[in-house]
Amino acid sequence: MSIKNKAYIVGAYEHPTRKAPDKSTAQLHAECARGALADAGLTKDDVDGYFCAGDAPGMGPLSMADYMNLRVRHVDATDIGGSSYLMLVSHAVQAIAAGKCSVALITLAGRPRSEPARPGNPWQPDAAWEQPYGIATLNAYAMCAMRHMHEFGTTAEQLAWIKVAASHHAQHNPLAMLREVVTVADVLASPMVADPLHRMDCCVVSDGGGALVVVSPEIARTLRRPLVAVLGAGESVKHTMGGRVDLTYSAARVSGPIAFAEAGVAPADIQYASIYDSFTITVLMQIEDLGFCAKGEGGRFVADGNLISGVGKLPFNTDGGGLCNNHPANRGGITKVIEAVRQLRHEAHPAVQVPDCRLALAHGTGGLLGTRHGAATLILERQ
Question: Which of 15, 168, 177, 271 stands 20 to 30 A from 324 (CA)?
Answer without folding.
Answer: 271
